[in-house]
Design a protein that fits this description.
This protein is α+β, with helices and mostly antiparallel strands. The chain folds into 2 domains: 92 residues, Nucleic acid-binding proteins (OB fold (Dihydrolipoamide Acetyltransferase, E2P), Beta Barrel); 301 residues, BirA Bifunctional Protein, domain 2 (2-Layer Sandwich), CATH 3.30.930.10. Helices cover 30% and strands 28% of the residues. It is built from 13 helices and 17 strands. Strands 6, 10, 11, 12, 13, 14, 15, 16 and 17 form a 9-stranded mixed beta sheet that branches. A hairpin with a 2-residue loop joins β14 and β15. α4 crosses α6 and α4 packs across α13. The longest helix has 23 residues. The protein is elongated. The mean pLDDT is 97. The structure holds 4-amino-1,4-dioxobutan-2-aminium adenosine-5'-monophosphate and magnesium ion. The site of 4-amino-1,4-dioxobutan-2-aminium adenosine-5'-monophosphate (4AD) has 24 residues, from β11, β16, β17 and α13. The site of magnesium ion (MG) has 3 residues, from β16.
């Protein structure tokens, strides 16, 4: 028998079908039992009239526990008032797997309880909507780069050295070769790939042993990192704004239903169009001063600072040219003022903070070697990376977009823990 999904019911109006799923909830009004079925693609109200079905079927539809797996059979009808717009005039039901005392009920549960039951919580309408939006964002990311002639060149996850500083490395034993580390970013390898293929992206999980307990930090998160040869900081910002516009506008067009389930105010997302405002670090500090923030010039921007800055704009803002001291070793200095790195962070609106970090890379061998030493990094581990400056070095630039922060912003969530099926955080590595 051909399997039918709730999302395809428009094709079956007037036909009798069987459809498998789970009991999302039930209602009863004496002679009628309503079973709301979910199958991951939508909800279907199945109506069991006492007079139309056998006594066994009628009794079963009363007893079924939430999340029991079943196959329902009946006639598909258009019903504008039903969730999804269709209804099943039901004739029969087969119980596949019973479910008694399902732990997640429509009442309010605490967040820790829900995270402990994350393997079940995923079945809730809101969580399903978030994961469908996450998937659409991933597809938009891939489509954007694929359509612009980028080659996907994935970087390794097990690496011999740090990329984003040594303080947040997860370490593991690696056979006879000593220690290996879970990568914090695929960037350094993406640079090698870009010098082979011109423009590339790497897209995969990255790891940070972050001690931060904020609503923006995971220890395992996904990052997409484009890298382009013969590109400078301005090219990098042009790419970032075109990319963000494409991703957000695509999700608005393709996942309107899910955004509605999440009650997202989409007017805030409709503004995400080029050009995005570009301000320097110095201009950002001016904004902080004007808003009465006691900010020490030269520091990195904190989460609260980012919120105040982004609140001045109705779309993401790009902050460029940070003090080199607060940024990574591989960033090129601004030739106009060596104190600054040719860096750019993109801050999302509505207090979502930094979603993109990027830069033009140091392409000069001697300067890069000096930075490796200044940062106390082991030169030996970076010999291959220095080779990229020894053999045909070129200006190049790239950035990394954090997937979970982007999902959190687009979905309007207050914590990144709901943006990934199974979040990993400082205090949680289960289920
Ligand atoms: O700014 P970051 O550290 O930049 C890099 O890793 C560069 N190597 C990227 C590049 O130029 N290719 O991280 C990039 C983005 C951040 O803007 C943020 O969105 C996300 O990764 N991110 C995190 N997301 C969730 N949890 C964490 N602990 C994160 N740390 C960074
Ligand atoms: Mg950053």
């Amino acid at each position: 028998m051909k399997k039918i999904y709730i999302s395809e019911l428009s094709k079956y109006v007037g036909q009798e079908i069987s459809i498998p799923g789970w009991v999302y909830h039930k209602r009863s009004s004496g002679k009628i039992h309503f079973v709301i079925l979910r199958d991951g693609t939508g909800l279907l109200q199945c109506v069991y009239f006492k007079g139309n079905v056998t006594p066994e079927v009628f009794e079963l539809t009363d007893k079924l526990g939430q999340e029991s797996s079943v196959i329902v059979t009946g006639l598909v009808k258009q019903e504008p008032r039903a969730p999804g717009g269709y209804e099943l005039d039901a004739k029969d039901i087969t119980l596949l797997g019973n479910s008694e005392d399902y732990p997640i009920t429509p009442k309010d549960h605490g967040i820790e309880f829900l995270m402990d039951k994350r393997h079940l919580w995923l079945r809730s309408a809101k969580q399903v909507a978030i994961l469908r939006i996450r998937h659409r964002i991933v597809k938009a990311i891939r489509d954007f780069f694929d359509n612009k002639g980028f080659t996907l060149a994935d970087s390794p996850i097990l690496t011999p050295a740090a990329c984003e500083g040594t303080s947040t490395l997860f370490e593991t034993d690696y056979f006879d070769l000593g220690k290996a580390y879970l990568t914090q970013s695929g960037q350094l390898y993406a640079e090698a790939s870009a010098l082979a293929l011109g423009k590339v992206y790497t897209f995969g999980p990255t790891f940070r042993a972050e001690k931060s307990k904020t609503r923006r930090h995971l220890t395992e998160f996904w990052m997409v990192e484009p890298e382009v040869a013969f590109a400078d900081l301005n090219d990098n910002m042009d790419l970032a704004e075109e990319f963000l516009e494409y991703v957000v506008q695509t999700v608005l067009a393709e996942r309107a239903e899910e955004l509605k389930v999440l009650e997202r105010d989409v007017t805030k997302l409709q503004n995400v169009k080029r050009p995005l405002p570009r301000i320097s670090y110095d201009e950002a500090v001016e904004i902080l001063k004007k808003n009465g923030v006691e900010f020490e010039y030269g520091n990195d921007l904190g989460g609260g600072d980012e919120t105040i800055i982004s609140n001045q704009f109705d779309r993401p803002v790009m902050v460029h040219r940070y003090p080199a001291e607060v940024k990574a070793f591989y960033m090129k200095r601004d030739p106009e003022n060596e104190k600054f790195a040719l860096a750019v962070d993109v801050l999302a609106p509505e207090g979502y903070g930094e979603i993109i970090g990027g830069s033009q890379r140091e392409d000069n061998y001697d300067l890069l070697l000096g930075r490796i030493h200044e940062h106390n990094l082991p030169q030996e581990a970076f010999e291959w990376y220095l080779d990229l400056r020894r053999y045909g070095t070129v200006p190049h630039a790239g950035f990394g977009l954090g997937l979970e922060r982007t999902v959190g912003w687009i979905c309007g969530l207050d914590h990144v823990r709901e943006t990934i099926p199974f979040a990993r955080m400082i205090y949680r590595n289960t289920p």
